[in-house]
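Database export, one record per block. Field names are fixed; values are copied verbatim from the stored entry.
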Amino acid sequence: MSTSAETHPGLLGSVRRLVDTGLGLAQNRLELFVVEIQEEKIRFVELIILVCALVAVAILALTLLTLTVVLVFWENGRVPALVSLSVIYIGGAFWLLRMVRTRLHQASKPFSATLEELEKDKQWLHGN
């Protein structure tokens, strides 16, 4: 039958509507923040699992490759084969390190959607 403005006319009704709007806005931003935290947590766990799997498979592959090359060159060139493989492995490690650093620097800023929404809110409040 009556709205909150009718039951609380005047300044009190306006303040109540303003507080209600502010609380709704804060709740919306908090929910967005919580969703972004969950997304970052899932992304981080997936990354850790993938890195562990990569390391395990790479160690197996490099071990078998090294064993194969050393067996092929057992008679004439064990030492040069091992030195060559060591240089290749070290070069690969530095290349992977550079890739990881690049990925970390190019990663999107965590909670960017929440920060963008808060910036929009700030601009709207200064504009009105």
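Remark 1: The CA atoms of residues 29 and 85 lie 54 Å apart.
Remark 2: The chain has one domain: 4-127.
End of record.
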